[in-house]
Amino acid sequence: MADNNKLKIGITHGDINGIGYEVIIKALEDEAILELCTPVVYGSAKIAAFYRKALELPTLPLNQVQQASEARDGHYNIINVVGEDTKVEPGQPTRTAGEAAMAALERAVADLKSGQIDVLVTAPINKHEMQSDTFHFPGHTEYLESSLGEPGEKALMVMCSEAPVLRVALLTTHTPIARVAQTVTAEAVTEKIKALDASLRRDFGVVRPRIAVLALNPHAGDQGLLGSEEQTAIIPAIEAVRKERIEAFGPYAADGFFGNGLFSRFDGVLAMYHDQGLAPFKTIAMNRGVNLTAGLPYVRTSPDHGTAYDIAGRGTASPESMREAIYRAIDTYRCRASYDEAHANPLRKQYVEKNKKDNVVLDLTRTDDK
Q1: Are 337 and 326 spatial neighbours (Cβ–Cβ below 8 Å)?
Q2: Sign of the C-alpha dihedral, residues 90, 92, 93, 97?
Q3: pLDDT-derived band at 348, boundaries 50, 70, 90
Q4: Roughly how many angstroms between the first and final C-alpha of the chain, as a whole number?
Q5: Which of 249, 273, 248 is nearest to 182 (CA)?
Q6: pTM
Q7: C-alpha neighbours within 13 Å on the C-beta side of residue 291
Q8: pLDDT tens for each residue of 104-156
Q9: Is 155 exposed, middle or buried (0-12, 13-18, 19+ CB in 10 A)?
């Protein structure tokens, strides 16, 4: 982090034919952004100018730099990662747009790993148009797990909002429905509950998280009548983590859990599959939702919406989720720093035992012969 304590925020432009540039430009108009961080956009000054003029957005002065290390504090910085002749077709999925998104993502990830930027915020991509020899993943999360994770580390998708406070993690991310049930094992559920507990503590500053675990089947399986995964996997996992003093509860039938407001009693929720968690989350959080990639050594966030081709180029896209993603990245970075500092050199616990016979208190931490 820079000496002035302002983080360098790397922002990838995502799909150039979607609403990425619109929400980035609109989000950066917030004057508080420059007071908190130094933005570095990975994209194209020419494409940014195209959208600014086409959508009649206020002028956003972009300081063009070759390297993130050259980014100027108090300015909006941009690194050109695509050629001047890159074709923009608002609302259209194209291979060119996919290649442009990949160029920005690769450059930003490299700079994140080398320490030139502190955190990463990604604008939406078209996963199909991104597919190539270097991107053969179903989404950002899986790519970042492969590119940024240490051996054995697993990324955890956490959708979060602050008003209302709601954090929903997913057991499976971009897994086809036909394969979801076979992935719901006691081992997998246990692993994800532990990962969510760790994220709530380190990324959000929750001291003693309460976690709700959703059922896979209707009516939580109805004691095996409508499915056995609750009995064979989810309940055993909850029991296992509770023995490790993790406060996990459930499984809760997913249909009523969000509608009756039960989510407000918990710090985090673990859903079994993508739409089970994201459909209610987006209904409740609306434009305030953020996608946080937990479980990796680096902080990455993104808005909770997609490319939105249907409104691309119309000037009607809300920047709220992108703005919240920037703020969440800053908050998460600081939460992790505070957590790591607090746990770096914990005080050694002092254990005492009373000798019943002699009524003498023994300090079991002493190593001398006295």
Answers
A1: no
A2: negative
A3: low
A4: 48
A5: 273
A6: 0.89
A7: 22
A8: 999 999 999 999 999 999 999 999 999 998 899 988 999 999 999 888 889 99
A9: buried
